[in-house]
Amino acid sequence: MAGGKFKKEKGSSSSSRSQPYQGGIQFHKSKGQHILKNPLLIDSIVQKSGIKPTDIILEIGPGTGNLTKKLLEAGKSVIAVELDPRMVLELQRRFQGTPFSNRLKIIQGDVLKVELPYFDICVANIPYQISAPLTDKLLKHRPVFRCAVIMFQREFAMRLVAQPGDALYCRLSVNTQLFARVFHLLKVGKNNFRPPPKVESSVVRIEPRKPLPQMNFKEWDGLIRICFNRKNKTIGSIFKQKSVLSVLEKNYRTLQALRLSENGSLEDIEMPVDVPILAETGEDLSMEVDDGDDGDDEEMEVEDVDPKRSDFKDKVIGVLKQGGYEEKRSSKLAQADFMHLLSLFNKAGIHFS
Fold first, then answer.
1. With contact defined as beta carbons under 8 Å apart, do 114 and 81 qualify?
2. Can you point out the beta strands (E) in the chain?
3. Cβ–Cβ < 8 Å for 245, 239
4. Could you tell me how far CA 53 lies from the centroid of its own chain?
5. Who contacts 144 (Cβ-Cβ below 8 Å, separation ≥6)?
6. For a tag on the chain, would you pick the N or C end, based on fewer CB atoms within 10 A?
7. From CA 244, how far away is CA 90, in angstroms rounded?
8. Cβ neighbours for 96, distance < 8 A, ≥ 6 positions apart
9. Looking at the whole model, is its pTM more than 0.90?
10. What is the DSSP secondary-structure string of 192-227?
11. Can you tell me the distance from the alpha carbon of 14 to that of 11, in angstroms, rounded to the nearest whole number?
């Protein structure tokens, strides 16, 4: 079931909170319950999913089962995760006594909390308020699945697929594309749902990269967070901020002390590699909004009083100049640029976690 942004609705009238289904089920907009009603659109989603007859399919928020039926016809079996017990009952009634009954497994619960079993492909029309944490959970799922074809709110979908230079290019774009290839498949209008949501929708295909990148993700995300704090500022002006320099210098001094105590020298020690994840919490994938202010970059610089702080600042700026990044902007940098920048910082002993 798809839906718009989560919004607590006021009023005691049931008609203000939900709309009826012909079978008597009330759809709650506040829970993102918007059922796909266009059979041609459902067929198109299934076709573009590339489902194989041997596939185990994960469906999230199956609702009354319109998409579920098509998935059962295309694949080996369907695992449907549904929170609403009324919809679970409707699914059981709909497929009971049919050839599909033995190939449909229903898990009642919150998809963000339940442990997902093995699946080959995910096809889902989800409540839009869980878009970020669900994307995170899917990309952390092991073993890695082949692909996910998911209906998202249009703006969220366009952030997932955004490229350097696009207005919606953000930390969400960079982190998602680090672990997966993302493709925009379909634009979906409001009238394809019952009841119609307030926002436009899009279908996106997510293909986890194989092999997954082997890296310290906390290091990576620490750099990306700083760079996209003001994505339209120059990288140089961002790294001259007192708050940024303070955090980086603290990390730098701490690692120096650890290396001296453990090895008796400042030789490089290998940083631990985290299990690759997209984000530690759902909110880490929130759709950052850049203010678009490209004002005077110099206003972000600070005066150095402490000689040590001044030396460290020079070290940071030296790294940026070495890679030619000082005058560049995060909004225009690609994955390879950020990886190169991170490697230059790490070689200089500067870390982000």
1. yes
2. 18-20, 26-28, 35-36, 56-60, 77-82, 104-108, 121-125, 147-153, 180-188, 193-194, 201-208
3. yes
4. 29
5. 208, 210, 212
6. C
7. 54
8. none
9. no
10. GEESPPSS-EEEEEEEE-SSPP-S-HHHHHHHHHHH
11. 8
Query: Quick check: 231 and 330 in contact, CB under 8 A?
Result: yes
Phi-psi region of 42 (alpha: psi -120 to 50; beta: other; left: phi over 0): alpha
Nearest to 232 by CA among 331, 338, 335: 331
What is the 8-class DSSP label of residue 122? E
pLDDT band at 308 (very low <50, low <70, confident <90, very high): low
Rounded to whole angstroms, what are the CA distances from 177 to 52, 207, 256, 279, 329? 25, 10, 33, 13, 19
Helix axes 85-95 and 66-74, enclosed angle (nearest 10): 50
Alpha-carbon distance of 123 to 341, in angstroms, equals 36
What pLDDT does residue 258 have? 83
How far is the C-alpha of 105 from the C-alpha of 12, rounded, in Å? 36
CA distance 88 to 94: 10
